[in-house]
Predict the 3D structure of the following.
Amino acid sequence: MKITCPDCGFFRELVADRVPARPVIATCPKCGCRFRFQPEDASCRLIEHGRPAPAGPAASPAHEDDPLPPGAIVPGRTVAGQNAPQEPADDSRTTITTAKDSPEGGTHAEQESAGHADEETPRPTNRKGRQRPAPDDDLNPWDMAPHPAGYLSAFYQTTLRVMFGAGRFFAHLAPDAPQFRALGYALIISLITVCSQYLWLSMTREMLEQAAPADAALMIVIRFALDNPLLYVLISLASFAFQIYFVSVLLFLGFRITGVKHASFYILFQVVAYSCAPLLLCIVPVLGPHVGLIWSLACLVNGCRVALDIDWPRTLLGIAPMVLLFVVLFSSMRLPH
């Protein structure tokens, strides 16, 4: 299989046993750009342009007033009209290494010259000894936590990027990021949501009991939540985690059925988990939960489109099976017995 840099056109042939099993982020050894490689169709989508090569020294001007006699040789200066000999570039030593080749499980590109290798500054490692990604505005702060400023700062920065820069955030999701990071972020959102609900229910309990009948299903849930707060929180967190996995599976099947062959469950799981960020608006009474839910759904749809790099028609077509299933379920629940 051939992997081609989408920025400069540099390519390499990968044998079958070195092709990664899922999408990876690679770095071109020639121009330094970062791109996402899809092994299903060998497509490469540009993420970040590489840095241009430093400009060489300017050509020496003609020494019209040079007092040296013709033919004199000065160390460090070439004879006019002649170029210094250059060693031919050896591309055979340049390799593109994917997650399958790297012992740390990450992806990187390395380029060796004819006699030496470029030295790189060592990056900080986590508790398991794996190298952390270098600080970058496009990286997910929650995946890098607690580096560089702790979990609280990472949670705050991630929430802001999801709510006010969803397109850029979801476009740079790491396909090999651990699931527990995204799940932990979503559970923190769920915990804040449940605590806010408990606060508002306890403040409006008397008003709700007067407005709703005693045997209403809503009042049964409210009384259970107020009388058993710890059990209510645990049940809510478990239910929320199940919903995240359930929605991720439905989206994965929907996109695969509609022809998006490069759809990855790991990417869609992160999209669903991080799309819960706007639910924090539940701390605002009355309108907060409704606005947060609509905002979260908008982030989910846009995140699927950007993360999978597809157009709007294919995005809506892939989400349609999940929407139809939920419509059928809610309709059956409202039918009179």
Notes: Strands lie at 2-4, 11-13, 24-27, 34-38, 43-48, 94-97, 108-111.
